[in-house]
Amino acid sequence: AHWICAGARVIRAGLDKLETMRVIGRMGIAVPWTVVAGANDPPMFPCILKDRFGSGSRGVHIVHDREEARYLAARHPHAIYQDLLPGADREVTCAVYRTLDGRVATLQMRRRLVGGFTGWAVIIDDDAVTAVCERIAAELELTGAMNVQLRLTAEGPRIFEINPRYSSTALMRDAIGFTDVVWAFDELHGRTVTFPRVPPGTVIVRTQDAAVLPSLNL
Q: For residue range 58-77, what is the model confidence (pLDDT) as tens digits?
């Protein structure tokens, strides 16, 4: 059997959100402060509480004071506190693909969440974001795809999560030519991958369609 995955180092770093921050921090990349909930009180408020090992944007709580922090920590024993980064309207999700010969493509999507998923996104091209994503991909020896989530702050991009998988925007990306799922199968079969240029300003939207089926004789 052939396994398509991001690679062992990316998986280890991405599945544990506390470890994600530690790994990126050791690269010399600035990250939001992150501490284990329950064992520590947050160093400042407001902050967020989220599952240390969860995925997606659900189950994230904004914490306003110490009483609320301890209440939530008691009910979420495997959680972490993290700095509440400013600029919800400047949240970016990045699809990062690294080929077997070490080339990296990064699609930067400044997004709006709808029901915990990216519902709308505009393509941007920020040099600092490109640089940090390429560095992480190289140092973690990414093979294939990962998803990097960050916010653009006055001090530069601040990564708060890495997902060692294809994100839910795969179909949206495919529609504009960033066909990273297909690239993985191309490389599996020895074909060379060519990266497209997606113009900044391109907008992609998640839609919900409906289908009408022929009548059935029930």
A: 679 999 999 999 999 999 98
